[in-house]
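Technical note accompanying the year-one report. For the benefit of new consortium partners, we illustrate the data format agreed upon in the data management plan: each record pairs a sequence with a structure-token string. No post-processing was applied to the example shown here.
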Amino acid sequence: MDTRDGPILLVEPEPKRREIYATTLSEAGYDVRLGDASTMNEEATRARASLVVAHLPEVGDGVRVCRLFRTAEETRDTPLLVITRFDDAYVREQIVRSGATAILMEPPRLWLLLSQVRRILSRFADRLGHAPGDRPARDVTSLYP
């Protein structure tokens, strides 16, 4: 799948947080598309997403969704940043083992969300087909405590 400069697919079931995360990422210069956990694979493929940021509130569903995402041929190479409310080492390990690229604890500080997005996109730049510096350069982290 060619993901060069593809959008970020944001999967957040809570409308207020979805709006906050989408606005934060958009203001930082990212193209953001909204998605749903039940159709995340199809949406990521259709949008040619460079990254999926997904809030997966239930452990069992989160692990299942990560496994399906990671085993699907179309999305197995797409980075997946998971937001979860479970601050338990075992649960975090299960989420990573099931396919998450990185995890943020809910609710993440917005500067940390942006930092993780930049880090992941930079780390996967060669796989995504662009140089690490090709992503948006607008630094808005100072706007968010």
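Partners are asked to follow this layout when depositing records. Confidence is low (pLDDT under 50) at residues 130-145.
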